[in-house]
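User: Okay, second chain of the day. Same drill as before: sequence in, structure tokens out.
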Amino acid sequence: MFGKTANSVSDFNHKSVVLGITGGIASFKSATLASLLVQAEARVDVVMTEAAQRFIQPLTFSAITHTPVHTNTFLPWSDEYTGHVGLARNADLFIVAPATAASIARLALGLADDLIGLIALSTEAPIILAPAMEDHMFNHPSIRDHLDTLSERGVIVVGPDYGRLASGALGEGRMAVPEAIIEAAITRLRRSSQLHGRKVVVTAGGTQEPLDPVRYIGNRSSGRMGYALATSAISAGAAVTLISGPTTLRAPCGADFIEVTTAVEMHREVERTTVDADILIMAAAVADFRPESRSERKLKKHPDQEFLDVRLVRNPDILASVDRPNLLKVGFAAETEDIVDNARRKLEAKHLAIIVANDAELTIGAASSTATILTSDGDVITLPSMSKSSLADKVIHAATDMLNRIERRP
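Assistant: Same drill. Structure tokens below.
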């Protein structure tokens, strides 16, 4: 859940966000979105279409944002208010949530028949859309084409989610939760160009090696580190592929997301996606072994059974096996003893450029991490305890610096 954290405040403080609300039942979620933006100390200017006002009153948003709500294209200009021109010029970010089928079509066609369309045509700020409509509408070829057009122009599309719709049916069309829109906004505001034009492949989460249809061998990895790394790489301007084992986390906005279950599946996807990649970051907790055979039926215990013998075979060492001349490899070493020494041996044995060493007992499944970053150039960077998001930024910075160093060498 998003809250008033240090990161969110630093990302939104003194930023001007224009929040466009169009006429859909999901507009009630926009009140929460506006509140989260205000809590993060953004200045929020709300723009509502005539249809939106049939679902929720402007008074709701003026009470939340403490600023006037803009509903009329034809209000006279003054020294303090210069209509859509001023809103567009001053915006650091333009969010349209909900974005209905009609509003998406207008934006894709460049129509300027309402205040939202006028701002979209006038602003140089990044634009985020959160579609919300019935499943059949969202999947209609015309809406898909319009969204593709907007995405090609750099518009960020968040959602929609699958779930119960206003009609009572289940389908894809629910507006993304406000927290997901906030995360996409933070990622876009933080975006830099240090990895522009680069492709980064990140693995995350733990693998699950099945014994039978209901049981598996796994570990306590939450996936938070890998997801934070993917988010940080996106913010650095990279094209990011995130290959994830099973987690409860939401894929970062902007990542090419691939879900896998076993180590063999992850190995296959890493081999495939790193063909044209610049950086591989293996943050996943991959099982070293898997059951030699998988029972097609649930294994039953017998009344007099004291033991279950399971023969394990070795899984592929993904990081060691991926060997491409121009691929910078970053590994993680979660150790319980001799942490730095064990990490250094792994760095050398797997021909890594960087390895991040940490205490497995304190890190796996935890929200924070204490780590040491080692590089093949001999750098040793000891870091204090910090959030995994902050550690991810440090790792991405180290990988970028190492990539630049390597490319400068004769």
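The longest helix spans residues 388-408.

User: Thanks, on to the next one.
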